[in-house]
Amino acid sequence: MRFLHLIWGNLTRKKLRTALTLLTVLVAFVLFGFLSAIKQALVGGVELAGADRLIVRHKVSIIQLLPVAYQARMERIPGVAAAAHQTWFGGIYQDPRNFFMQCPVVPDQFMAMFPEFRLPSAQMQAWLATRTGAIVGRKTAERFHWKVGDRIPIMSPIWMRRTWEFDLVGIFDGRDKGTDTTGMFFRYDYFDEVRKTQNWGQGLVGWYTIRVKDPAQAADTARRVDEEFANSPAETKTEPEGAFVQAWANQVGNIALIVAGILGAVFFTILLVTGSTMSQAVRERIGELGVLKAIGFTNGQILGLVLAESCLLTVLGGGLGLGLAWLIIARGDPTGGLLPMFFLPGRDLLLGLGLSLALGLVTGILPARQATRLRVADALRRL
Amino acid sequence: MSENTAGQSALVRVEGVEKVFHRGAEEIHVLSQLNLEVPAGQFLALMGPSGSGKSTLLNLIGGLDRPTQGTVNVGGDRLDTLSDRALAAWRARHVGFVFQLYNLIPVLTAERNVELPLLLTPLSPAERRKHVATALAVVGLSHRAKHYPRTLSGGEQQRVGIARGIVTDPTLLLCDEPTGDLDRKAGDEVLNLLQALNREQGKTIIMVTHDPHASARAARTVYLNKGRLTNEPET
Q: How close is the nearest chain B Cα to the Cα of A358, in Å?
């Protein structure tokens, strides 16, 4: 701390150059924050997936439906504690850009399967008592300014190409910060009843989520489920919920690799920019470094001063960049619903700060070594 | 040729020193078999033409460089045998430097410049402030403490440089052409100050200079020519 004024003075000596370098680092870390939030939105579900939950879907593809009658058979398979189904509704509220997920479910089974959704018990009772009742996550309710009691028209291009009307009876919250609260869920019996009148798709569901009794035996349980429905018209593929979410995200591409690639290119550029700034800064004051050595500063102290200066520059730029990214990201999903879990995780904030420190050390080490190698007498001659 | 002073204990003792620089394959002998003793409390002027090795000798006595051969002993410490780290610590404790071009750090105020050597000591901020105030008072610049070097005249900057040199109360003050960049009036002020530090505070001062007017203020003058010391200027 006793050298802080010296470090700060050196950093602010060429204000324009420092400001431009700081801005470059800042922009890089805003990008880092954004890409981290996008990665979180696309693959964050993998981390939040229940270790004791499996997804059962049609062996051919998720868009092939499964009989609702499979549920009772699944629940009889050893190792299965419970099963609940969902079906992709694909509805549109007012405008196709207003994307959010809707699924018909059996309310009590669904809420028992997904305890991360928190719904007040009075609203749960209202849902059980209202055949056209629906619940919606907090994010979507706030997005469309919906409140309990509203009647929500949803047009489904998949199911009968008609507008379905739902009575909003509850708004649920997430147990964790990363819990997706953009979905809307309505009663399967209402959904199936309408399908029955149109004689289309009745008794079919999209996929099942099953809870296993022992997560350690999940692989065996998955195998038993698939064996149960082998050689049937609707064979199944059962996999852990995390793998299912990952496969879903992988449709976009290998998110982690894409993010790492972009950030790698950005940080390599920053490395060159900041490294050049620091080298120039040291070259310009070789004489002053000679004076410091003359009055007794050791090579270690000179090394520390130069490294501290480069680290202060990158940590300041990185910290401001991450802060700005956090502020922008806090405004919510910029895509209008495609990235429901769009937020900057605290883990990535810490990683960003660590990266900014590492960047400072890497960019400062060469000029710092150059400074320590100076012979005092030579340095003083260059004043 | 040796330059010895009898009857007084030597603070600085340079014996058989040679300094050779290499420029490619060429060897440049800057100092040859040089001996010098400077008693504690003496104000010595070191004169000689450009390239005679004055600054090189000053660097050896100040522990900024090492001799190719011979010994440099200051206050009982053999500087030629100390490691870089030990030499840096020795400089911080025992020697103050005053340079021709002042060499102040432009981004620091006068008081922060003077404080620099104290940052290497375990003194508290309050103690450092006290020492800095004393040093600035000695050079008569208390009222300019908050000023940056660019707002000070050359003479004032050199006085700040002297304050930085004496703030740790070193045994030895080494001045390399301290008036070389100043006009006569400012130069006289600096020389008055150095004389006062020598007479009133007993500082041992070795001053490299080209200027006979400056060397006249010293108690003793030695001449360096072609790497050798004499008591008389070479004609």
A: 27
